[in-house]
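Re-running the complex after MR caught last week's input typo. The corrected sequence lines follow. Everything else is unchanged.
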Amino acid sequence: MNWLSYLPSLAQGALVTAEITFVSIVIGGLLSFAAGIARVEGGRIPAFVALCYTEIFRGTSLLVQLFWLYYALPLIGLSFDPVTTGIIGLSLHAGGYGAEIVRGALLAVPQQQLEAARALNFSRRHTLFHIVLPQSLVEMMPAFGNLAIDTLKLSSLVSLISIADLTFRAQSIRNLTLDSTTVYTLTLIGYFLMALVLAAIMRLIERLVRRGAAFPKAAHA
Amino acid sequence: MMYGLAWDTSTPLAFATSILPILLIGLTVTVKAALAGFAIAIVMGLVFALLRRSRIRAVSWTTAFVVEFLRDTPLLVQLFFLYYVLPDYGVVMPAFLTGVLALGLQYSAYTSEVYRGGIDAIPRGQWEAATALNLSRLTVYRDIVIPQVVPRIVPAMGNYAVAMFKETPVLSVITILEMLGLANMIGEQTYQYLLPLTMVGLIFLLLTLICSAAIHQLERRLPKAGVPLK
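Corrected-run output:
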């Protein structure tokens, strides 16, 4: 069989991979900020909940988490379709790692700025959203870029809970044709190209954030 | 029944205690795979890092591309690639070895970046001084660079070792019976997935927490500027 004949099926799989990765990065990003901010700024109880969340999802393997969500959750009455399960698993995993990125960046803001903000009688919310976050956002972006690539790579694991993503399609074609070299080479190239595109997108976002975080005009006046 | 160990499904507690020894047998496979993979990653990472510093452009660029490719493609697909493609070319090896090789290669891409960062952190003046003293490249690396780089990179390496440990369940897809693979088999035979999978998760959590704490302690004790020279 010609390698070109594999492409339509692999492309469909790549689309599924791209969708799952995109949704998981967005939800994971939101979770990262929620848990990261809760750990630094939330009171004792939210900080503890966020700590448990990050430790559990960073401390166990993603594949274990996915199998747990896939096989074990239905037994306690919660069942989702495989795609939803995959997205939940990937998002929670990305959020756990992202929360550490957010926490690190928030803590890296110099202490004097917080003192200055307090001296100027800014509220905590105002300090967080107008002083701490704009600066730390820039610091977070390179790490989030890596996390996005990791999420893309880890999304291949959802093929093991029967989602027809790129890896799953590759496995099916391989089982049909036994043409392992061609199929897996194409698949690896596919993931590599998707990672390059994702990295470019993350760099673009980083540049936008950097521009947005530059001192607002009012600050110079 | 597995490894001659029967399980008792009468109560959750009895089930848990009866499958724990089976899971612990799986854990030894997990740990062995992670250690062997990490050994490959440490050696290959250094090889990649040094090749990348080669003065011959073709070598350094090829290495950079290979590292980038290994870093940007999923471990699972690399694993399938090695597992199915190598036998087509007459390279047949046990599944465990294939799995360890895949883990080691993927992580060598990460560790090579760690080495690179460590080597780049050596002040330029030291390289110049070494040149001025007419030291050979081997002497420079062996006596000047490596002793300073190693303590700086130990924490990062430790974190990758833990990360690798957490990725070993992927090896279950190429028939390696590590902890997750065994938990799945127990699930298939008893129709009880919740308990075995939860136990695997808890064992992972416990071990990674302990390892992370150990790395943190180690990081504190390491000399800040490098191993003192003779």
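None of the earlier attempt is carried over here. Chain A has one domain: 3-220. Chain A touches chain B through 40 residues (CB under 8 Å).
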